[in-house]
């Protein structure tokens, strides 16, 4: 458990929100695969590669109130955001399917889950990485003041 001094740090709450969102995103990803039996595509695997380490980085940052957590989390969140953006551009037909990375196996452009008519797995991933990046930016600004 974090000490009282850590929780009084101006950026601790922001870091906690980033950790909470990362854990929820990772558990949702596992739920889609293990419970709903939705097979992940190649781009989904890349996004998982960038998402799952963030849970450990944010956990460490929370316990030690490490201000340099941004240095380690930002490249992973940025890379995950770029992959999620690319997948959304593929799904919406902005990027031609001729350059899609998943030529075999599960298609990166097919929608296996659709909530409310627009919340697909790639959209959820893009939203999660975007919010994580905004929280990291806010955390960095708060601790630098």
Give the terminus-to-terminus CA distance: 26 Å
The tally of strands reads 2
What does the average pLDDT come to?
A: 85
Shape: elongated
Low-confidence stretches: none
Structural class: mainly alpha
Quick structural summary:
This protein is an all-alpha fold. It has helices at 4-7, 12-34, 42-64, 69-91, 121-144, and strands at residues 114-115, 119-120.
Outline the structure in words:
The chain is an all-alpha fold and 145 residues long. 67% of the residues lie in helices and 3% in strands. A two-stranded antiparallel ribbon has the order 1-2. The longest helix has 24 residues.
Provide tags for this entry:
single chain, mainly alpha, two-stranded antiparallel ribbon, 5 helices
Q: Helices and strands in order, then pairings?
A:
Elements: H1 4-7, H2 12-34, H3 42-64, H4 69-91, E1 114-115, E2 119-120, H5 121-144
Antiparallel strand pairs: 1-2
Helix pairs in contact: 2-3, 2-5, 3-4, 4-5
